[in-house]
Amino acid sequence: MFSRSIKIAPSILAADFANFGAECRAIEAQGADWVHVDVMDGHFVPNLTFGPAMCAALRPHIKGVMDVHLMISPVDVYLEAYAKAGADVITAHVEAGPHIHRTLQAIRGLGKKAGVALNPGTPAEAVAELLDMVDMVCVMTVNPGFGGQSFIESQLAKIARLRQMIGDREVHIEIDGGVTVATAPLVSKAGADVLVAGSAVFKGGSAEAPEAYGANIRAIRAAAEAALA
Of the residues 88, 135, 176, 193, which is catalytic? Predict the structure, then answer.
């Protein structure tokens, strides 16, 4: 069922790389709504992370939504592999290739939810012709490639513009980058409902002592929801 309620999607880029299965189980037990997997290729973005085999290995440890964000180019040739690996949502960047419409068709054709991502320098209007064929628009509020960057406040106007453009369509707005207790209310008020958070969720805890994860998730959610009250 579609819902615009606030959803927290911890990014495993900030988790313990040696203990991913336990980390995924821990964040879900502590209240995470989705698990966000940042896939980077060292080409489209200056970092290298998770291939389809890693996603397939994580899938048994994730009960809920596996949200796979492909920061890669070319992207089309890898869609089937990530779909088979168990992704529920597959997001591709509008900047990653010449035929984003075809890419989104392919994701839908694989039976997955389709997301389209926008880098900070790309305007909201770049997805105007795509809103009837996506399930989510992901707004990058940092330049993609690394965790722990500072939130780019100029993106708030883009979020608000997208919310206006989406209207009553059942399309989520996801925010990726710099989400904290301080920035969560800004993005939720602008119209976002899926908040990706890395270090802000994983700070202070571990898979063996995950209580801090829960406290961090609850604090981000409460801050975002308070802005909507």
Answer: 176
Kindly calculate the radius of gyration of the chain based on its CA atoms and give it in whole angstroms. Answer: 16
Q: Is pLDDT at 148 greater than 80 in this prediction? A: no
The predicted-structure confidence for 48-63, as pLDDT tens digits, reads as follows: 999 999 999 999 999 9
Q: What does 164-183 look like in DSSP terms, one character per residue?
A: HHHTTS--EEEEESS--TTT
- Whether 16 is a known active-site residue: answer no
Residue 205 to residue 225: CA distance in whole angstroms: 24
**Position 146 pLDDT exceeds 80:** no
Q: Catalytic: 76?
A: no
| Structure tokens that stand for 18 in this block | 């040696």
Catalytic residue among 38, 41, 88, 135: 38
Q: What is the pLDDT of residue 149?
A: 80
